[in-house]
Specification:
This protein is α+β, with helices and mostly antiparallel strands. The protein contains 13 helices and 14 strands.
């Protein structure tokens, strides 16, 4: 057994468990066990089924059977995919911990397999999407606040054509942005046992880990998250707010207050005007703006093309404001039939239109699909803040945005709480959440 197991390491990456030490009374098993493993290895080459009979072991010898069984099982797993290891997910509770443990393979549940349609789409596309990255709109919030007509027109075009734009001159000091990013990075540097104290609670829908995993079969994203409710204050559960690093809570509180001001400026001012309403019109439709925060951590991956940091999706929010690393790319948005990489501008914020504004505008301003890629050299972080209507707010197309010549309502009226609950009951996939509100003739 021992000789065969060690030799197999040179042929396909099989297991390198240390040789168990046998006592004198156990040596008689050596011949039997060598035959067992030899038979096991042969059977693995013919479908992976082990058919060797298990000899009867005495009490003092049973511990060897457990060791050998584990070795054989590991050997079976390593034979998958012609030597590429893709065994089931081991008992790790975070992707970051898998990477820290130097796991020598990507667990199967993280490996993304493209559909034939996606593969054909990629093969047929002859456009270099990277040329579109510099064209992602950049909006000056200071000019918008002064109701600059040209800047308002740029915003309208950005919402209609892209659903995504970068915001500069937003009023949040660069030092404050750095402080909250440093606190976020410090949290993920903690030992897993400390982070685990804030584990995600499915009932509260807050905490650290892998939120919203809805089945044991779904493919998993290559990321860990910390999800917190910020506003209204009574939704907060401070037991999920890390106390290490010591300045985490203070810096998150300061950033959350500032980014809320940015959201209110956009919703109450420019976006209300853009949608043909008086100032503050969109705020009234929200009843009360709810605010949630999600800190995302995307560890490195030795085969980044085989995993996805965040699956393609749109946000079930009104708008989302993102703060990301200045020196690591990964965010991509769907545009013109492909995926466009968003290259960060230092100290900028990224804003995307969510499903709620798409419904209110009857599809004129579309929520945009986006995803996050990983890389093999450097981990990436992003800090996303979601702004949403109150749960009892009703969302439907606004009458004044319907074409008077008879354009149909693309979406039915739906209570936002129902819409949000629907979006959390299944894995995020593209823009499938909007099907809940789609009119029958538009579905």
């Amino acid at each position: 057994m021992v000789g065969s197991s060690e030799e197999s390491l040179n042929n396909g990456g099989m297991i390198s468990s240390p040789v168990p030490s046998l006592k004198d009374g156990e040596e008689r098993l050596l011949s039997q066990e060598t035959n067992m493993v030899g038979s096991s290895e042969e059977s693995l080459n013919n479908g992976g089924m082990i058919s060797s009979p298990v000899p009867s072991l005495k009490d003092g010898e049973e511990r060897l059977l457990s060791q050998e069984t584990n070795m054989v099982r590991s050997s079976e797993e390593s034979l998958n995919n012609g030597g590429m290891i893709s065994s089931p997910v081991p008992s790790f509770e975070s992707v970051q911990e898998m990477v820290r443990s130097n796991l020598p393979y990507i667990p199967d549940r993280f490996i993304q397999r493209s559909t034939d349609e996606e593969e054909e789409e990629d093969k047929s596309r002859d456009v270099d999407m990277s040329v579109l990255s510099p064209q992602i709109p950049i909006i000056d919030l200071a000019l918008l606040s002064m109701e600059d007509a040209d800047e308002l027109q740029k915003l309208e075009l950005a919402c209609r054509s892209w659903g995504f734009f970068m915001v500069i001159n937003h009023g949040i000091p660069g030092e404050e942005l750095e402080r909250v990013k440093n606190s976020a990075a410090g949290f993920f540097e903690l030992p897993f046992e400390e982070k685990k104290e804030y584990s995600f609670d499915l009932n509260e829908r807050q905490g650290y880990g892998r939120p919203f995993m809805v089945s044991e079969e779904e493919k998993l994203d290559w990321s860990d998250s910390l999800l917190l409710k910020i506003h209204p204050y009574h939704f907060r559960r401070l037991k999920f707010w890390p106390t290490t690093p010591p300045d985490f809570r203070e810096n998150l509180e300061a950033y959350s207050n500032e980014v809320r001001k940015v959201a209110e400026k956009l919703l109450a001012g420019s976006l209300s005007l853009m949608m043909g309403m008086n100032k503050g019109g969109l705020l009234g439709l929200h009843r009360e703006i709810e605010q949630s925060f999600r800190l995302n951590y995307y560890p490195i991956c030795r085969n980044p093309d085989r995993v996805i940091g965040a699956s393609p999706h749109s946000d079930a929010s009104s708008i989302t404001i993102l703060l990301q690393d200045d020196d690591v790319t990964g965010l991509e948005i769907r545009h013109a039939g492909g995926w466009v990489l968003v290259k960060p501008i230092p100290n900028s914020l990224i804003v995307n239109i969510g499903d709620v504004i798409e419904i209110w505008s009857n599809g004129k301003y579309k929520s945009i699909e986006h995803r996050a890629k990983t890389n093999e050299k450097k981990a990436r972080m992003s800090l996303a803040t979601f702004f949403m209507p109150a749960k009892d707010a009703e969302i439907e197309p606004l009458d004044h945005l319907l074409d008077p010549r008879g354009s149909k309502r693309k979406y039915n009226k739906v209570k936002y709480g129902d819409y949000l609950a629907h979006s959390l009951r299944k894995k995020i996939e593209g823009k499938t959440n909007l099907l809940l509100s789609k009119s029958k003739d538009q579905a």
